[in-house]
Specification:
Number of helices: 4
Structural class: mainly beta
Order of helices and strands: HEEEEEHEHHEEEEEEEE
Strand order of the largest sheet: 3-2-6-9-10-5-4
Shape: globular
Largest sheet: 7 strands, antiparallel
CATH architecture: Roll
CATH superfamily: Electron Transport, Fmn-binding Protein, Chain A
């Protein structure tokens, strides 16, 4: 099949685009509002974009479903200039799902999901203490996209890794099985890895 997203109806029961661009890592974006209230929300349009200096991005549609206001994560980053990203492991899938619910501004998603606020070293926003790895980030740039969507770029200024996931000097992601978003309501986990050397190395 072929279709042009801006013109054609794909004719399928659900939009296949997100199933094509998959798997996508799931990152919890945590922020503080100006009154010091914590907000936590999972995003699957999230990834690293470079390593020197380390930078990450996530994108958001900007508005809550059916509510004419900006999402709390975006508002808080604009106000404070910082955020954290916590990696979601297989064991934290239920907590992640609970934290995805749309709650009134100021509600504590950590409490609803049974999670602990980790104490940051560089920024003020807490991270998820139970996460296998978390990144403290300073806001770098916002890019507006069509459809009232926004890409947020952040520079990683602090990295937390739980010691049990470092084996023989390497981060062993199979020890915590990071959660990945597929299309529709589907998820997967990374349970095995393999290595390939470049032809010129």
């Amino acid at each position: 099949m072929f279709y042009r997203p801006e013109i054609d109806n794909h004719g399928l029961p659900h939009n296949p685009f997100k199933a094509i661009v998959a798997p996508r890592p799931v990152g919890w974006i945590s922020t503080l509002d100006q009154d010091g209230n914590a907000n936590l929300a999972p995003y699957s349009f999230f990834n690293g974009v470079q390593d020197i200096p380390p930078m990450v991005m996530y994108s958001t549609t900007g508005r809550k479903l059916g509510i004419d206001e900006e999402k709390d994560s975006l508002t808080n980053i604009r106000e404070t200039g910082e955020f954290c990203v916590s990696i979601v492991s297989f064991d934290l899938q239920d907590a992640m799902n609970i934290s995805s619910a749309h709650k009134p501004r100021g509600d504590d998603e950590y409490k609803h999901a049974g999670l602990t606020k980790g104490t940051p070293n560089v920024v003020n926003a807490p991270f998820v203490a139970e996460a296998p790895a978390s990144l403290e980030c300073r806001f770098f740039k916002e890019i507006e996209l069509p459809g009232h969507a926004f890409v947020i770029l952040g520079e990683v200024v602090g990295i937390h890794i739980q010691d049990q996931h470092i084996r023989d000097g390497l981060l062993d992601i199979t020890s915590y099985k990071p959660l990945a978003r597929l299309g529709y309501r589907d998820y997967s986990t990374v349970t095995e890895t393999f290595s390939l050397n470049r032809p010129d190395q």
